[in-house]
Amino acid sequence: MVVYAGQGDPRRSIELLWRASVAEKRSGPKPGLSVDAIVDAAIAVADEHGMAFSMRAVGERLGRTAMALYTYVPGKNELVDLMYDRAMAELPTSYELDDGWRAAVTRWATDMWEFYGRHPWVLQVSQARPVLGPHEFAVIEALAAILVPTGLPGRELRGIVGAVNYFVRGAAQTVAEARAAGGATGEADEEWWYARSAVLLEIEPDLAKKFPMLHLLENDREPIDPELPYLENDAVENFRGGLKVLLDGVEGAVAKP
Description:
Layout: H1 10-17, H2 35-49, H3 55-62, H4 66-69, H5 76-87, H6 101-118, H7 134-147, H8 154-185, H9 189-203, H10 207-210, H11 212-219, H12 230-255
């Protein structure tokens, strides 16, 4: 399920994201409802149920009707933007460079990886239409602030920032989808792999000979965490190994005269 941000009224959405001209109105028998309270409740609902939530579900979490929320947030489209940006407020806005830019980028990437694990629904919000909120900007600002001191030119830095950002997001996407697959299909990962791999080897017993390079890759590895399912182990390995190679490339660019 892909959700596109920025579908609400542009002015109202930006005002809410940046909290400009927002009047906190009090209405009904329970005072104290606010935009922040609604957004926090929506994030909690999405953490549990994904993006297939309703304004009614958010209202119920707050002990209100869905209609009561519209005094503060125009609709679900605007609420998705607010949720996305507010969730990103959890992330650090700066990183120490005492151990060098490479260690700082690794910390940034690890923080993002763990963030996506806590809020997998964020990965359903397409990057094709950015939210344009302050915390979304701050996350990329933090990465850029680590890399700018390397002295690389702006165009090259822009490509590196994008590559690191999309690499982490893509690796995290695999984990999120693997974790959701069992509930969505009604079949556990272990059952799925066992059933299909057994049939595949029965029908194509010479698979290793036909694809020797893939066979080599699969056999020259140990699971990072035996407790994790196959695809999660694969994603963690790709994240760690891929990030190292990516940063090796950046290091090479920095070292060039």
